[in-house]
Amino acid sequence: MTIIYDKIAIIGVGLIGASIALAARRAGLAASVTGCEIDSAKAGEIEKLGLVDHVTTDAVAAVQDADLVVMAVPVGALGPLAAQIVPAMKPGAVLTDTGSTKRSVLRDVDPHISGDIHWIPSHPLAGTEHSGPAAGFAELFDGRYWLVLPREVPEDEVVRFESFVTGMGSVSERMDADYHDKVLALTSHLPHLIAYTIVGTAVDLESQLKNDVIRFSASGFRDFTRIAASDPVMWRDVFINNDEAVLEMLQRFSEDLSYLQRAIRWGEKDKLETLFSRTREIRRSIIDAGQS
Ligand code: NAP
Question: Where would a tag sit more exposed on the chain, N or C end, judged by fewer CB atoms within 10 A?
Answer without folding.
Answer: C
